[in-house]
Amino acid sequence: MISGASGLNFNIKSDLVANNTATVAEALNCVKEDPESDATLACLRTAPFDDLINVSVNIPIIASWVANDIAWYASPSTVDDASVLASFSTFIVGLSKATLEKFLSFYPVSDFEHEVQPDDIVTAQYYRAARINRDVWFTCPVIDFTWQHAKEGSTNTRLYELNQTRFEPVWKSLGIPHWRVSHHSDIPYILNGHVAGGGDNSPAQQRLASLLSGDAAAFAHTGHPTRSDSRVLRDWPTAYHDSSARDSPKEHPDQMTVYVVGGPHGSGPASISKSNGTGSLARERALEQEKLFQRCEFINAIQEEIGV
């Protein structure tokens, strides 16, 4: 659970990345002088991709996104189809007219009308653009990466969506309440820190931070987020059923479990499938409304078009 440089996990387990890298290097007969030498790194860089996957597939993974990730990529003045497309086509070039039209069809504005609040300064088109950007930059790549990892045999891959933020009072004071659960919202929970500048440090928020940071520490130490005697979020299953993922010919998943952290429906696992849209839990029904299977299948299939 690292964002940025590997050295940032010094308060959890400082040798985690180094040890995993050494294990992979040893399995590929790449240890030259010592596991952290330039010669070892050069050998790893020339190793065939399939070989790297085969020896690293059992490294446990937790991958995530937040509910309104990268909300600031969409301008508050987004009011029509053209400005929705402009919110991401400036950064992702080479998309055909047909592909851009498919984006609009996969994200109809009617799906986002319920997002608009009475005191909002933005329209449903803004929330439409924000969701497209979230899925393009974060959610869909995360799902694709973890699915491919599971297909190669990983049995310890987990997902979560953060649906709560401690920055809400800050965004309101700055006149940008529409950012909601924006990028960086996970940091005060993972690090279990105090949010300055008017952030929400209520007992309920501190309790969630204590739980999620406990999961992060347990995962870093044991490879399992709930294997701890400390306070952690419990009942966190793997993202994909082993039988459906292992050696699957499918390029995209048709079922998965996402741990929803915080929000109006509470924390807990939400199991959804492409063929069944009748989740028994409120958080499952809410997650189904994001249409992750259909939208991410489309987004992850256009990687060649955008040169990825």
> How can the largest sheet be summarized?
4 strands, mixed
- Coarse shape: globular
Poorly predicted sequence stretches spanning 5 or more consecutive residues: 4-12
Main-sheet strand order equals: 1-2-3-4
How big is the Rg?
Answer: 20 Å
Provide the succession of SSEs.
HHHEHHHEHHHHEEHH
What's the helix count? 12
User: Ends: how far apart?
Assistant: 24 Å
Structural class: alpha/beta
**Averaged pLDDT, please?**
89
Strand content: 5-15%
Q: Compute the number of strand runs.
A: 4
Q: Can you give the helix content as a percent range?
A: 40-55%
Quick structural gist:
The chain contains twelve helices and four strands, in the order H-H-H-E-H-H-H-E-H-H-H-H-E-E-H-H.
What this model shows, in words?
- This protein is an alpha/beta fold and 308 residues long.
- It is 41% helix and 8% strand.
- The protein has twelve helices and four strands, in the order αααβαααβααααββαα.
- It has helices at 16-27, 38-46, 49-56, 81-89, 97-106, 124-151, 168-173, 187-190, 203-222, 242-245, 282-288, 292-300; strands spanning 61-66, 157-162, 255-261, 268-273.
- A four-stranded mixed sheet has the order 1-2-3-4, with helices on both faces.
- The protein is globular and about 60 Å long.
- The chain starts with 15 loop residues before the first helix and ends in an 8-residue tail after the last helix.
